[in-house]
């Protein structure tokens, strides 16, 4: 079993982007990070995004509307950022408070500044295999991790656990693209799938993105499979200072020995997501300068 090291791969990408940003004279790429309220996981993610931007030389603008912000106020803020010529990329951290409709918000971001890739137009471009748009950061990071760790998807059976807009749907579209590094046969499973283990056991590459701690157990995995764990779950742990520990959607101790390769949590897909956000921000800056 080999660990797929997301920290190391993300650090390489960050170094590549830093070198590229260093060649920019004049206005550097700028990313607006919008976080509504104080969801603890979101606080930590936005902080990491802000720090990584600074490391690369991308300007970041963190905007923190209170949890009481109305949908109309949030949409007005997005309109303002869309119109602001000094802003290249806009990210609205999910989840948003319950009184706000996420899809309405994601669709309000200008497609040219949609570094999260959640806008209808950018998701549609993934389906149409048009590389001019933005691919959502988590699926983009998974593909990059797969390619850079030498896993070949062509002709393989990729099973995706989860059908979310942020991960499940776009990773399925990417893995089946007519590209040399893709060309997979894809099955998407979800909460209504009958006899789930019989399907996951057919996976050459299993991508777990259901947000249930340690859901994937050894009986669900074919020996020799590659397992990509997208989950980042906080589970209570009294032995930790923070009172919790992070765990993936895969029960690592029982599954890892079966795999040829597996991503750890933390240190797998998570850091890649942030690196791809930075890559998208640079792409948005190029779009603005084309
Ligand atoms: N919440 C979990 N993943 C993401 C992501 O990729 N982007 C945003 N904006 N929120 C998230």
Task: Explain how this protein is built.
With 290 residues, the protein is α/β, with parallel strands linked by helices. The chain has two domains: 28-110, Leucine Dehydrogenase, chain A, domain 1 (Rossmann fold); 137-270, NAD(P)-binding Rossmann-like Domain (Rossmann fold, 3-Layer(aba) Sandwich), CATH 3.40.50.720. Helices cover 39% and strands 15% of the residues. The chain contains ten helices and eleven strands. It has helices at 6-22, 40-56, 71-83, 102-108, 120-127, 137-148, 168-175, 196-200, 252-255, 269-289; strands at residues 2-3, 30-34, 59-63, 89-92, 157-161, 185-189, 205-208, 226-229, 233-236, 244-247, 261-262. It has a six-stranded parallel sheet. Helix 1 (6-22) packs parallel to helix 10 (269-289). 43% of the residues are buried. The model has no long low-confidence stretch (mean pLDDT 98). Guanine (GUN) is lined by residues 91-94, 116, 137-138, 166, 273. Guanine binds at residues 91-94, 116, 137-138, 166, 273.
Put the structure in a nutshell:
39% of the residues lie in helices and 15% in strands. By secondary structure, it is α/β, with parallel strands linked by helices.
List keywords for this structure.
290 residues; Rossmann fold; three-stranded parallel sheet; 2 domains; binds guanine; 10 helices; 15% strand; six-stranded parallel sheet; alpha/beta
